[in-house]
Amino acid sequence: MSLVTCIVRLLAPARAALAGLALSLAFGASSAAAQPEAPPPHDALVAPLRGFTRAEMTRVEPLLGYGPVGLIELPTPPTLPAVHLLADVEAPARVVAEVLSHPTRYPEFMPAISSVNVRERSGDTMAYEWQWRTSLFTLGGQAMLTLFAPPPGQERRGYRMVVEQNGGDLGHGRQVWRVIPLGPDRCRLALSARIDLRGANAVTRQMENVGRSLSRSITLATGLAALTRTQAEAERRVGHTRPPASEGMHRPNIEVRALEPLLRRGDLVVIESSGASLRQSVVLTRYNRTEAQVRGIMLNPEAFAQALIQGSTATLTGEPTTDGVEFDWNVDRPLVGTGGHMILRERGPHLVELEALEGAMDGGRWLFETGMLPSRATYVLGWAEFDVGDANFLLRAMLDADESFRGGLSSAAVVMLARALRNRVNREPPTGVHLHMQ
Fold it and tell me: Which helix (H) or strand (E) holds 279?
């Protein structure tokens, strides 16, 4: 029973935050009344964006065969955490740069973007307005794009593009794109982004005040959609067709220990996909405590009481059996209330399986593996397969507008599970056993 309630409370913030993301978008329709009179101070337009280094790219390169790889930075106040994404593209770097550098053509291959209007041009810089329309809501904003192309004869240096999001319903922020040639017909596409919702519409600002991770979730969802759509469009232009993503959950072939240097920077995600077709979302996180302590917290629901969302409950619907234990769960909150029926199974001393049988996320499955890193800190590797659109009708509207949002929203959900656990783990006082794990 302890483990059941614990997992419910871990999943609750993910579902509620996803629903909150949809609500903040939906009820923040583009209008002058929704904008703040004077946006508060922010650093999203000026703070450095340190993406994947070449050494880090080498470490994650084996994972890029699954699909895009992301690093969601850990909080380092007062600077907002950034999101960094990577994907390999079977097209020349110049083709990818051509796709990215013409925003007016975005609506042709990014279904959610309904229009882009250029307001001003000066050399390789342009200012434009964008609008994003779904069946339920409309968003808009202003941005400025600057392209930095390599000098003639130095194409191996690649391309860089900076996009400053300087107003609108999604606040302020900056994106830095890099197109790195890997040969004449292949390249690596990197995106580093940071969005500050404190300058967004009124409802979005209120949601961000409640949950500070919303900025990262929106950055991950929109950034990954833009990256995968750019990848697909560039490959379409050169006639390359990716095979569809295979089905079925599996533990990804990840050398966890080799990735610990990246885990000190943030949470690692792998989106196993082919374009907008999603197979499963994977998250890898590091906790500065022993495995026994982390698992002890996971198995103790009372340990989560102060860290996780209020209003979540779990009720056993029968006695535990060899197949697991079934329970009903419920999150009782205005507008984002949700619930369902699940079964929990322990698969040995290092693995927990959770399956949604009815209600929200019906048919979804989550697996969590724990283990020890070289520093003797603990890792948690989670992989999941579920339909994020089942969480809320507003999220379904987002997916109907553009299926490529599925990967980012699903990954945001599993990352939120990891953060919920970290919130509680970090409240445990360090002991002499833990001091060497920094």
Answer: strand 277-287
